[in-house]
Structure formats: C-alpha cells, structure tokens
Amino acid sequence: MDRQLANEYAVRMLAAKTETAKRGFDSLLIFGLAPRRVGDLLYLAGHQPMLPGHTRRYGFRGRGYSALLLPISGEPCLLTSTPFFENDLPVADVRPANNLPEAIADALREKGLGKADVGIVGMDILGVTLYDDLRREAPGAAFYHADDIVMNLRASKSLYEIDILRRGARISDEVAALLRDYLRPGLTERQVYDFITGEMTARGVTGAFATCQSGARSETPYDLVPASDKVIEDGDMVHMEINGKLQGYMIDVCRSTVVGTARPEQVRILEITLEMLEKSIAAMKPGVVAEDLEKITGEIALSYGFNANHTMAYGGPGTYLGHAIGLGVDEPPVLASPDKTMLVSGMVITVEPGLYGTGHGGCRIEDEVLVTETGTEVLNTIDRRWW
Fold first, then answer.
1. Where are the beta strands (DSSP E) in 99-147?
2. What confidence tens digit (pLDDT) does each residue in 48-58 have?
C-alpha cells in the first residue's frame, strides 16, 4: 500500500478511536454487509465483504458479513466470513471464520475486551439472530449503538477523497458532453444506457450504471426498469443518470432535456427545475440546515403551481432534494424534511431537484457540490441547459 493511502487509513482510525474514547467505549465493532452496506468497512479498513447469503444455518454464522474490531488501545482485527479478501489492507490481523460471532467473541477476550463496553457501528444492518448469537458468545461485553461515529467521520471528506470525487466528476462531464451530442430521436433508451455505461467504463469507472426515462416514462423519478426498449421520439422529455465508481467513490449526475422539438410548457418545466438547482446551491454553506434547502426548492415549485410534482415533503413523488455521496451513493445528510444536519466544510452532496407527473414529461438536473469553508464548489462543469 502506498504511503499516502496508508496514512489516510491511519488518520481515519485515529479519529474513530478518539470519538470512541469520548463516548466512554473501550472499542468499536464495525460491521459491513455485502454487497451494498460496505462503506464503513471500506472507509476504515479498505475491505468489502463478499458472498451474502444464509446468515445463520447449521455451523455457519454471519455469511456475507465482516467486522472490524477497533480497540482504543491495541491493534485492530478484521474478521471475515469468507477467506476471500483484498491483498493489500491497512489491517495486518485478518481472520476468516465460518462462525463470525464466535470469532468476534474470541478476539474480544484475546484483547482483554471480554467485559468491555463496545460501540457497534452497523447496528441497523445487524440481523436479530446474528446479534443474539454475538451476545451469547460474548456475554460479558456490553454493546451500544454507535452508528453515528463513523457516519459523521465519513460525512466530511479529506483532501484525498475530494481529489477522487473531483476526478470522478470530470469523467462524468466528459461523458455527458458526448451524450449531449449523441442524443437524437430514433434511439432506444437501452442504446442511451449502453452509451453512458460504455463511455464511463472506458474511462476507468467501475460498476457503471445509468438510467434513461423518456416520454411518459420520464414522469416518474425512477422506474424499476432503468432503461427500456422504448424508442425516443421527437418531442420526448428525457432524464438520464450518469453513475458509477472511481476508486470506490461514487459518481452521481443527471441531465434532462427534450429530444428534438420542445414545446413551450416543456421548456418552462426545465427552466423551473434549473432555477431550483441554482438557488438551492447558492444557499449552501457551512451552518445551513439540510432540510432548509429542500424548503427553497419546494417553495419555488409551489410558486409555479406544481403542488404534487416535487419531493415527498411537498406532495410529490421524489424522495428528497439531494443527498451526500462518497463510498456510498446515498449517504447522510439528505436534503429533506426532517433532516436537521448542519452542513460542514468537506461534505460532497448531490443536489437533484426535479418535477414529475406534469402531463408534459418529467425532468431532473443534478450536480455534485462540495461544501467549502465559505460556500460551495460545484464539481461538475458540464452545461445544465440542454434545451
């Protein structure tokens, strides 16, 4: 592992230990569950658990989970439910085991933590049966909810992380510029999807993902079918997500337009959505409360007569105005009522206002935004107005 990355992990572990000590815990126990709830383990240990499946059957306990034992004093220990893990990790002590709770209990006792106060990160993903097994295997330890410790550390990105996120944004800008020229009537949504994911993959992005919803399909924010065989026709509203990962960090951008000839009402919808994006970003800075940004866009939507077309808080089908990204695609804070998280410098948040169910098509425009000490830096530079 190169020195910069090794130092990054060391700083993160020290910060986690410091916060753990402030809570009066002797150790943290951080869980991850494949394939999607892996961000906390990636953040602290560079590890992603594998092979989710039966979490409790016969002698197997915790299949698909891994856990990092991070004592305040002493060396960390990574416990996995498979012998498959990364070659270059910041944790030297890695222990595969078929019975994960038993292995955790053994490690606790070995490190003098058999009767310790242990904060659990990942309580929200820890199955009831697995938690019961853990308590039975380690009856002397007291376990406490501590999800917020790592969640809060991850919220404010380091310079190392911001550099990766900036590069990811530049890649999405390159692909978006090509996509804008590529779009035309007669293409299928699937062809647009393949174009986006192909161009992202060609630029080193892993797990490239896209959506393309046109015409009547654009009226909903997301469809269970991200791109269909529907042919995009002249005058169709379309919104398209450009997603993937660069070095494990998420890319999440969206653009909307009318393919071919736009009707006046469609242009109006797009312009209102753009106003929502620009005004909410302009209001972002440290100390601003997350839910207040959704109030800005919600009031704009209402002022133009869109009473059930924006986010859930304003009677619409959208989930919320935006969310943080990093090692996960949908991290806190979310820009929605009732999230009262105050923005801090270093947060990277996707702002994605949209209007849906209008009768003329739906749209969403999304940029990645870094909160700075004095305001914001919009990481995406590709034009927002494609109509």
1. 117-121, 142-145
2. 999 888 888 88
